[in-house]
Amino acid sequence: MKTAQFTPAGTLTAEDLGRIHLIGVGGVGMSGLARLFLTRGLPVSGSELRDWPSLAGLRALGGTIHSRHEVSNLDGVDTVVYSSAIPQDHLEMVEARRRGLRVLHRSEALAAAMTGRRTVAVAGTHGKTTTTSMVTMVLQQAGVDPSFVIGGEISEVGSGAHHGTGEHFVVEADESDRSFLIYRPYVSVITNIEADHLNTYGDLATLEAAFAEFARLTDPDGFIVTCADDPGGRRLAETLRAEGRRVHTYGEASDADLRLSDIVSSAQGVRYLAEVDGRSLGEIRLPVPGRHMGLNSASAVLTAYLLGLPVEAAEAALGAFPGVRRRFERKGVADGVLVYDEYAYHPTSMTLALQTLREVAGDGRVIVVFQPYRLYRTRDLQAEIAAALGIADELVLLEVFGPGELRQPGEGSAALVEAVPLPADRKVFVDSWDDAPVEVVRRARPGDVVVTMGAPPISLMGDQLLDALSARSGDAAAVDPDGSAATAG
After folding, report:
1. Architecture of domain 117-319
2. Sequence-separated (6 or more) residues with CB below 8 Å from residue 231
3. How many CB atoms lie under 10 A from the CB of residue 263?
4. What does the domain layout of the chain look like in residue ranges?
């Protein structure tokens, strides 16, 4: 079982970090942190081997981006920031320690940026990126100009980070490596708790104990929000209330503090009636499909209500919610085929995304191009992942993305594809990235919906699929110019 040690949030501020260098700056989490520092006026550099789309924006803000990992990248640097994906023997990490530079995990650097702010930290197994984005937009609509760092980009904003002038700081809190335990939130939102990241925790009981520890770090003057419909969230609420802590719940359950009813979801979006402690808040509408989106949005409504913000701000923000990049993101249309990208890789979020895709596809078929994320998860949850993929009409499966993991005999996508309950001619494992677009072109028909789903690299395939489909027809791919998206968790 993996263990990690992080320094709890203290008095260190972002300005104390001096010149900041981020190793692997192209990832969503790291690029968002870099953007936050840059918009705060701090000198930032970073190293990244892959040309991620976010890098152009960082350069435009004045960041120095190195396309190679070299010790010279640390010249003039005061603080080096790394993520859990960076090994301790990385040459820049080794050099930083040799030089005696300050070395911080991403979460520690983020905690420094939050010093002096009222933090709203959103955690949970599923939906935390979308929920964090919703809370952020509600606070923006209320005019309080929050700072935020999210593990995805709000489609309308085109960014996952911002340095605001207000007192609130909204952050997505990552439980995967226990780093969420260094934060000291004013508000803690926990969307749900399910078995995941068991390479870190070992079992569900230990994971639930970590979420309880995270909730107990909430400021005594603040509050905790969790879902009454989720078994893990309900157990957590009962435990914390027994300790005398201020906990508020949301959901369809009859005893939820904010109760949803009359939920209707379609390809056009989702709507529901909301009430708090018996007081009607009226109808909440979102232009994105999926019943689970109602639950995500309800946590944002409840948080805003408890912060004393106008409910009208929540209604307006959610009514215009544009979605989040890589969360059911609509990439475009080519040869009559609609292409989406979706980050889901855990079977629960995969199931919700694919059920929502069914609403969007109508009479069309759903074709999934899936890249599993992490060998241990694919092995331990193989039956559940296979069942989720069985919702699709056609499956193109790539090899597992598991950097740093050692593959054992019988592990990986070759075993997974055999477990998927689809006829042999409707599923295929491809061991080459370039073979996936070929399979999609061979299988997709006008009216079908194709979704790239899973580990981070698969997000780069959507444009390739559009190009391949448009080449098949001889027409240009139609890509949504505003990056409009429908979010699924």
Report:
1. 3-Layer(aba) Sandwich (3.40)
2. none
3. 17
4. 14-106, 117-319, 329-473
- Determine the Cα–Cα distance for residues 309 and 312; give it in Å rounded to an integer: 9
Q: Do domains 14-106 and 329-473 have the same CATH topology?
A: no
Q: Per residue in 385-409, pLDDT tens? A: 999 999 999 999 999 888 777 777 7
Confidence of residue 478 (pLDDT cuts 50, 70, 90): low
Selecting among 79, 108, 119, 128, the annotated active-site residue is 128
Domain spanning 14-106, CATH architecture: 3-Layer(aba) Sandwich (3.40)
What pLDDT, on the 0 to 100 scale, is given for residue 158? 46
Residues 329-473: name the CATH superfamily. Mur ligase, C-terminal domain (3.90.190.20)
* Pairing assessment for the beta strands 337-342 and 449-454 based on DSSP bridges: parallel
Q: Is 213 a catalytic residue?
A: no
| Active-site pick, 48, 92, 153, 172 | 172
Average pLDDT, the chain: 86
Note the pTM of the prediction, 2 decimals: 0.71
Model confidence pLDDT, tens digit, residues 331-346: 888 888 889 888 888 8
Count CB-CB contacts under 10 A for residue 209.
14
129 catalytic, yes or no? yes
What Rg value do the Cα atoms of the chain yield, rounded? Answer: 22
What pLDDT digit, counting tens, does each position of 271-286 carry?
999 999 888 999 999 8
Q: Check pLDDT > 80 for residue 298.
A: yes
Please identify which of the residues 79, 119, 125, 129 carries the catalytic annotation: 129
Contacts of 119 (CB under 8 A, 6+ apart): 168, 169, 170, 171, 183, 184, 185, 186, 187
